[in-house]
């Protein structure tokens, strides 16, 4: 069961994703892609961490997402989030196409619940910054690719899921 | 009956909200949070005002939203919009958390139709401006909180409501 | 049958629109409004073009959309996209209201399948740039007007259609 949870900023997408996994037997693996570059990000990471009760095992994985998914084996996994992972790839000058291909392959090998969180970033005005345009293009394409193999896709609005697939 | 009407810029969310109330007996209270800071805003306020026929009583309420909701008593109310109210709180350096708590309490006391309009502002690229980031975070959190107590939540797209709850 | 296909950047809206027409007998008319101003745009136009197989007749129509719709007669038409057409109108200092009125009239005369693609650009933070604000207002208003006469309106998310109407 592969679920893609999309949503805007502060839409409640992470909380919704956590609730999806909470119905499964613990332990749950939390693959955290966000890096605490600054105070704002540190506060957000701390807030997310405080919300997760026991039963969660958090692993920081800024880049090697495919490897960690394989490593998780038959334990339920939450990836939060694809968007920060893409950011890390772009800022670290990694090969995005190769990394995404490896992610898709790893997702194909998963036999248990996997929930992927992604930010919807493409519904505003075209950004003036070229890197921002590249980023939102890559994010949109990644969401499309994952959606083709996902069992369920939801768009979270004000904390509530709009079912797009499944 | 509490309804949260979300939508992007020029999505037709205000018009949809007005139509929701028009099914109830007049008079309807229109709590207008927008302040006509500039020509663009003045034009928009005038356009909204021109659309509302008799039966509407407009009250300008940039900040004290909870008080005016209590004041409205058993008359149907439309709040247009939460987003400008949040803007006024942030620019006026008010205590957002306290103001939101008071709003939630006032909404809990309402016995008749209340329609709240909010702008969806979190589906674009992360803004470079720190105040803009704070604003879209506060807007997202506010929408989530109201959605938990709302009977109905819709996302207006091209003038048409996508039902998210209710 | 008039269909409005909305979606964010790289949401898969063009591909979804093409698939809608592919169920009809060829030839299909592709009215391409995008102008290859720069390398990025040229690459995108080339990618879209490469995807379209035989059966498609591509006509570049940066401005005179109503005329070309009339010209297409009883052949199925895909307009990709309204957003770039609006951009061309604004940058070329054309009369937007008049052009939109002529488009609406031409759509009213269509007797066969017509699919219009538009970008959802109004769900981010208010742009600081006045032209960008004008553009997103015009885009929102245009989508609303077309939605009132459309048989079907969808919002494409991660390549999948959320049905808003029809």
From TrEMBL, chains A, B, C:
The gene is cobU. GTP binds at residues 7-14, 32-34, 49-52, 60, 80. GO terms for biological process: cobalamin biosynthetic process. Catalyzes ATP-dependent phosphorylation of adenosylcobinamide and addition of GMP to adenosylcobinamide phosphate. The keyword GTP-binding applies. It catalyses: adenosylcob(III)inamide + ATP = adenosylcob(III)inamide phosphate + ADP + H(+); adenosylcob(III)inamide phosphate + GTP + H(+) = adenosylcob(III)inamide-GDP + diphosphate; adenosylcob(III)inamide + GTP = adenosylcob(III)inamide phosphate + GDP + H(+). This is Bifunctional adenosylcobalamin biosynthesis protein. Its EC number is 2.7.1.156, 2.7.7.62. The keyword Magnesium does not apply. It comes from Lichenicola cladoniae. Belongs to the CobU/CobP family. GO terms for molecular function: adenosylcobinamide kinase activity; ATP binding; cobinamide phosphate guanylyltransferase activity; GTP binding. Keywords: ATP-binding, Cobalamin biosynthesis, GTP-binding, Kinase, Nucleotide-binding, Nucleotidyltransferase, Transferase. Pathway: Cofactor biosynthesis; adenosylcobalamin biosynthesis; adenosylcobalamin from cob(II)yrinate a,c-diamide: step 6/7; Cofactor biosynthesis; adenosylcobalamin biosynthesis; adenosylcobalamin from cob(II)yrinate a,c-diamide: step 5/7. InterPro entries: CobU/CobP (IPR003203), P-loop_NTPase (IPR027417). It is an enzyme of class 2 (transferase). The active site is at residue 48. NCBIfam families: PRK05800.1.
């Amino acid at each position: 069961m592969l679920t893609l949870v999309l949503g805007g900023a502060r839409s409640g997408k992470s909380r919704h994703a956590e609730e999806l996994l909470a119905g499964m037997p613990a332990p749950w693996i939390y693959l955290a892609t966000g890096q605490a570059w600054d105070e704002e990000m540190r506060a957000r990471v701390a807030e997310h961490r405080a919300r997760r009760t026991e039963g969660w095992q958090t692993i920081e994985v800024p880049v090697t997402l495919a490897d960690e998914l394989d490593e998780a084996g038959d334990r339920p996994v939450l990836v939060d989030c694809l968007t920060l992972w893409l950011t890390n790839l772009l800022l670290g000058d990694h090969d995005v196409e190769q990394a995404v291909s490896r992610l898709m392959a790893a997702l194909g090998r998963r036999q248990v619940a996997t929930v992927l969180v992604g930010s919807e970033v493409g519904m505003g005005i075209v950004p003036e910054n070229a890197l921002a345009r590249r980023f939102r293009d890559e994010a949109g394409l990644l969401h499309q690719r994952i959606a083709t193999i996902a069992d369920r896709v939801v768009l979270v609005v004000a904390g509530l899921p709009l079912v797009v697939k499944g």
